Amino acid sequence: MMQSNAPLTAYRRLLDRFWQTRLGSWIISHVAVHLDPLIMRATAGRLSSVSLFGHKVLILTTIGAKSGQRRESTLLYVTDQERLILIASNFGGPRNPAWYHNLKANPEAEILLHRYSGRYEAREAEGAERDKLWTMACETYSGYERYRERSHPRKIPVMILEPLAQK
Questions:
Q1: What's this model's pTM, rounded to 2 decimal places?
Q2: Are 147 and 157 in contact (CB under 8 A)?
Q3: What pLDDT digit, counting tens, does each position of 78-107 carry?
């Protein structure tokens, strides 16, 4: 069983507010995304730059929807039993992130995440299931609500990844 999603402590809420600022978003999107793959590979997926601040990240490897090439993305995630939940927020941008389009075109992906590394199959959550998972994600990282406001009218997709070995 994966570790539970940590509740937001006062410290985590303060950090979440920082990550939602322009500076925080810039650090994540321009620095952490380049450092984390190196740190995570060196520690077999146990550590990342943002894990020091209370967030859980994984490395998602997809096949490019247009290029057919392997693409890596470092992403926050939420767990729901053995499933991994990814929020395609793109920092509240007007378009869905490339990794979302890659998963829609090629739903099989690889994950680097300590003991849970392996191959997964993705699908998009819809309806009540999406609403439940969105709420779980917002309880883990409050920035998703701000991203939802910024991205309006785009509805931020919620992706579910399930291990292929159990299917």
A1: 0.81
A2: no
A3: 999 889 999 999 988 899 999 999 999 999
pLDDT tens digits along 43-65: 877 777 777 666 788 999 999 99
Task: Name every residue whose Cβ is closer than 8 Å to that of residue 69 and which is 6 or more positions away in sequence.
Answer: 63
User: Token pair of 152, please?
Assistant: 């309006």
Axis crossing angle, helix 127-140 with helix 143-151, rounded to the nearest 10: 120
**Gyration radius of the chain over CA positions:** 15
What is the DSSP-derived secondary structure letter of residue 154? S
Burial 113-133 (b: 16+ CB within 10 A, else e): bbebeeebebeebeeeebeeb
Full set of structural domains in the chain with CATH: 10-166 (2.30.110.10)
